[in-house]
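Progress note, project year one: complex with zinc ion.
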Amino acid sequence: MHTDSPPTTRVLYLAGWGRSGSTLAEGMLDQVPGLVGVGEIKFLWERGLLQNRRCSCGTPLRSCEFWVEVLHEAYGRIPDDDELRELDEASRRFRTRHLPGLLLRPAGHTSRAELRWYHEALSQLYRAVAKVSGADVVVDSSKFPSYLTALLQAPGLDVKVAHIVRDPRAVAYSWQRHKEDPDAPNGELMPRMHPGCTALYWSAWNLATERIAHRAGLPYLRFRYEDLIAEPDATLRAVTRLSGVPATAVRVGERGELFVRRTHQVSGNPVRFRSGAVPLRLDDEWTTGMAPRHRQLTAAVTFPLRRRYGYRDS
Ligand SMILES: [Zn+2]
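Model obtained:
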């Protein structure tokens, strides 16, 4: 049956700056009936398909049964390398890390005609994810505020924004640490960043997320990583309600562990490879491990947004 407008696909966009716990939050949301967490879809073309990195199920993406079925449903085949490069090139337009650009870029502006094919391709992809998974809502943890504008231009997507924030001092400390990335080609470590730089990005990124969601009139909920760990059930219920599916209790074990099934997340923090009983523990190593001058710098640069999000001075 042919219809002029495609059916609506519901998308819960997990926004927030890197190392704020979005991958863990997505893995938790994936446990909720009706939701499917599929990682940072923005990186599907490059890291997922061109580089054939591993899906969180452990299989290289081109061999992952879930993604192969999604791509066949969306496009009838896996796009060839030239097509993948074009898709990646288009998504890079929505990947700005330029700080003024993050704050000034208008939300939901008119689609450029030459990118219409890209927005159609996104629409087909999210629709296929929903169909193959059987979920009511697709959870995308791409996080970039700029990529959110790409989703707003894709026809037939009903987008809601769940914005995760974390204490900027914990985030800055995480960006300082040497961390292995089991998924990186050539055994590279995860990227690192100076606390001053992290603090600037944390502020600009979070402000841009709020601004884009507000200007586009999107349903929006901000939640704190610390609350997700301390009160997982209540926090997940609130996010689930935003997504539009009935909130159900999430099973937390006696020792505070969460039972996570295997997911099919593209890219994201290495925590996505964990399944089974995952301990929910607040990583507060920064409170003892972070150099005082870095703490003070981060606290100063992120004030007053930090205070508005409920993170005190000490
Ligand atoms: Zn997979």
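Residues 107-111 have pLDDT under 50 and may be disordered.
The first strand starts at residue 9 and ends at 15.
No further modelling is planned for this target in the current period.
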